[in-house]
Amino acid sequence: MGCCDVPGLMTVETALNNILTQVSPLTTITTIALTDAMGMVLAEDILSPINVPPFANSAMDGYALRAADLEHTDTLTMIGKSFAGIPFTGTCEAGQCVRIMTGAEIPAGTDVVIMQEETHVDGNSIQFTIKPKANDNIRPVGDDVHLGETVLVKGTRLTAREMPLLASLGIASFAVYRRPKVAFFSTGDELRPVGEALAAGQIYDSNRYGMKALLEKFGCDVLDLGIIPDCPEKLRQAFVTASTDADVVITSGGVSVGEADYTKDILDQEGKIGFWKIAMKPGKPFAFGTINNAWFCGLPGNPVSAMLTLYQLVQPMLAKLAGHSQYQPPVRLQAKATSMFKKRPGRTDFQRGIYSINNGQFEVTTTGNQGSGAFSSMHHANCFVVLEQDRGRVEAGELVTIEMFNHTMY
């Protein structure tokens, strides 16, 4: 075992369960316009106020007629046209047909549409080359959605797949939960903002950029408090501001063994914090609890560790807080390792991998350097290789579990 592989650490599954057991959804509900609703979570079921389509319409360009009329003849007389938005207003009688376009209302007296490719046209005399069945190429009333049908359930997060559906029902506004507000900052005297020159011993603060990007993808309103130096007064003020203005406070750095005690002291005084040592690699140092009236998540300072714990532990927590009851964790499946994965038993290891499909078989190879500070590995990866806590070194050819990145990583 390595120095970080301490027996008795809390498992990743137990840590996540503890978080989700404690967190309850926000209860504040507001009415929002459809145009502003992308990414919001529904606070009510959506029932359709109409049938979709509201009238029977043609599935293609062609001719509307009575199927029975072609039992003893193959030629009918065209008496008019039906366009989308400009329907034919008369009644189609025996021996007649109506030229019709895709989406146009089915004329009275007709029960089938024959596509134009199955006809020969001579003025208003239309010869048909097939014998159709009644209702062919007709979309009936309510073919997609029925009046009163529940189309979206409470707790659904609205995406580009739901927005057109709501628009097709003519729904202009509805009730949603307010977004969780998350305040975040980085800690450490060694951190410098991008764009500034580095002095000896200094590094750029990269974590806040990843945190902001993921938190916005998670559907949160974010408050970036910047870099807070290792100063008790400034750190305390940052926590007061964050916990006053936000539902969740997230920090990166300052929760590992050996760090300055300012963060721990302030949290012990102002909140209720259990510092966890999770059987997770990378990401063992992680803190969760409350400070004043806000939830607190302390991420490790190493960039891969910070992003991984935010993705694996904080993402589902924020989904629950947002009322997103339809949230699904990232998809996991089996793949064949095409490279060796170095590992020691003791912690669940989330290594960065590149999966591909070869003759229907999922395969995965390592991105190379798996150090918690090697963030370029996240750029090259398209999945996590999830190696079980008790598992050791993986040889090429063995089966492993991969976790596909969800939409928040793209």
Automatic annotation (TrEMBL):
Cite the MoaB/Mog domain residue spans from the record: 183-320
Q: Name one GO molecular function term.
A: metal ion binding
Q: Does the keyword Transport apply?
A: no
Q: Metal-binding: is it a keyword of this entry? A: yes
What keywords tag this UniProt record? Answer: Magnesium, Metal-binding, Molybdenum, Molybdenum cofactor biosynthesis, Transferase
Q: What is its cofactor?
A: Mg(2+)
Name a single GO biological process: Mo-molybdopterin cofactor biosynthetic process
By its UniProt entry, which Gene3D superfamilies does this protein fall under? MoaB/Mog-like domain, MoeA, C-terminal, domain IV, Molybdopterin biosynthesis moea protein, domain 2, Molybdopterin biosynthesis moea protein, domain 3
The EC number(s) this enzyme carries: 2.10.1.1
Query: Which SMART domains does the entry link to?
Result: MoCF_biosynth
Give the family per the record.
Answer: Belongs to the MoeA family.
Stated name of the protein: Molybdopterin molybdenumtransferase
Q: Which organism is it from?
A: Photobacterium piscicola
